[in-house]
């Protein structure tokens, strides 16, 4: 399968993104306190922790949705404290959401095509009339989208409005839309939430395939420990907004602070 236009300057294992000393508060609520970790090119990195630990806030900092009061983010060698989500997306960071965020009345195909918008270069005027350069461009984008539809095995639902699909398939379409951006870093916020066992197995397989076949670096938040341990290369653990552990799944699983955090042992 065709590589998704990744950054060729970095080799697998190089630091793709680093989070340094990030702190984020909402009024008096400290969501993240002085957290540092990195994500290496080609890996599957899990971010775990009990409810309210700051995981979603961290994804929102990484994709520019929240601006931390302290700390900085370095992505592909460029450092920033603040960045708009649209700029983060244009630089190669795509994400999915805890609750599916698709255009429910639009078909699978159109939703995934919407993920290509960022890559469209011809003037809006031409796009409107699907004419001239916009037509040539649309054909090229369509090819990428069709490849993704084949890859995710959703040919049968390509014309179906996504609001009519079962939840597991909606999550798969959302993954497809993020892949259509051909990201260097894919952020998945609880990709298995609300799924039954079979749907979880399917989604796990697709996440592994995206990582193996496209070589896409993935950071995911997930509550299902079995899934986390099976899928991820490294795991960072947050509790009350602080990092309490970081390492290989086996290491993290045996960490006393992590066990206590999950059992709710007070500090
Ligand atoms: N927009 C916001 N305004 C105010 N407080 C917020 C906001 N977003 C998050 N918080 C608070 O920040 C803390 C961390 O929340 P966050 O959603 O990042 O945790 P989480 O680890 O993703 O939790 P969960 O597993 O329940 O999704 C919580 O105390 C939460 O109430």
UniProtKB/TrEMBL annotation:
Taxonomy of the source species: Bacteria, Pseudomonadati, Pseudomonadota, Alphaproteobacteria, Hyphomicrobiales
InterPro entries named among the record's database cross-references: AAA+_ATPase (IPR003593), ABC_AA/LPS_Transport (IPR051120), ABC_transporter-like_ATP-bd (IPR003439), BCA_ABC_TP_C (IPR032823), P-loop_NTPase (IPR027417)
Keyword tags: ATP-binding, Nucleotide-binding, Transport
Pfam family, one: BCA_ABC_TP_C
ABC transporter domain span: 17-265
Protein name: ABC transporter ATP-binding protein
GO molecular function: ATP binding
Highest taxon listed in the record's lineage: Bacteria
UniProt keyword Transport, yes or no: yes
